[in-house]
Write a structure and sequence with these properties.
about 75% helix, mainly alpha, 6 helices, about 0% strand
Length: about 140
Amino acid sequence: MSIWAKIVLSGIVLAVLVAGLAFWMDLYGIRRGCFASRLDQVSYESARALYEQANRAIASKNYSVANDMLGLALTRLGDSYQLGRAEDDTSEAVTAAKAASARAEFEVAARIKSEVMSRRLALLQRKMRLSEICHAAARNWGLG
């Protein structure tokens, strides 16, 4: 075997090991997205509907109602949006929103919760796309 063949083979083996390690460590949420059984579409739709209603309430300056709706939407969504080992940077914002709500600063709380909800819905959509891609690949390969 020539030196170039050994270098190429070593590169391929190294790439497979790195990909396996990344998959095992779930760095980008690929494993969690692929092995997610049917994601709860009902919870997602319910949380999204509440989010949209809350945004309309914010637009009409009804902040206390929007704050309550967003709190309910966050509860309905739960932690299903989490993907990978990435730190959840939205939990601190939720804590700040709850503190603002306790001080009767409903506008601030509603705007913070709206941003958090937007981020979490985007993360859940990403997880759902990963799950769909993995399940489609499994069906194509005859694994699922």
